[in-house]
Amino acid sequence: xxxxxxxxxxxxxxxxxxxxxxxxxxxxxxxxxxxxxxxxxxxxxxxxxxxxxxxxxxxxxxxxxxxxxxxxxxxxxxxxxxxxxxxxxxxxxxxxxxxxxxxxxxxxxxxxxxxxxxxxxxxxxxxxxxxxxxxxxxxxxxxxxxxxxxxxxxxxxxxxxxxxxxxxxxxxxxxxxxxxxxxxxxxxxxxxxxxxxxxxxxxxxxxxxxxxxxxxxxxxxxxxxxxxxxxxxxxxxxxxxxxxxxxxxxxxxxxxxxxxxxxxxxxxxxxxxxxxxxxxxxxxxxxxxxxxxxxxxxxxxxxxxxxxxxxxxxxxxxxxxx
Length: 322
Description:
Number of strands: 12
CATH class of the largest domain: Alpha Beta
Largest sheet: 7 strands, parallel
Oligomer: single chain
């Protein structure tokens, strides 16, 4: 069947590519671009699908809506509001397209810590030659354990990389039922406190959900080994930055690396900028080629599926935002 699809945004190169690809697989598809609120309220009645961000008023106007395509893998908090969660509208997202890029970024952090690069980089900037040669401390990955919190697409890809380096991999996930490739043993989140003392690398890839917001505070950091490293590429809201700064300065853990932050950009006055044994990148872990093509492929595939009444891919658990 054909249907009406509303883009709740301006027409640009990317959304135009979506529309052209979708029209190629759904003959007679009606496409409407509506960037202004008045245009959105006028376009949504009778629309069966849309792309973008709704609120309660827009959702009420969308009297025939069955599919909402979210514009990101993890939209901002508030995207999944009560009325949307309670509705019959299926929401899809772009999860899965970043797995290779972000997992490589994680391993860059792991290797930096394992080989002491976090110290040597600072030495270089300070003009210091650190003595010690082959006697310098290093983490032998083949005898280390990675605890990956969230072993969906990104965490699963990271597990495979860790496994290639001979690491033992423990996975924690609330909804993955069987250990993915590269994961030696899988646990539910209620086992996290018991597992943290076993890990040399604690890698947080979990999305922002009601249960992960503010997950890592001094309490959980205190369960880690003093020699362990913490890495977060999931969502910034999952880690309390003031607590992380404190445990780094106190030596509670050996180091940390973040690509995402509670507040972005990280404020210039934040003490974490000068925390010891800390690495950061400015929310760039997803950087890499082919992302726009992958987004296009998902939109086209789901348009075809929606027209045929087939199950959509990347359907979101709306109550848990992912």
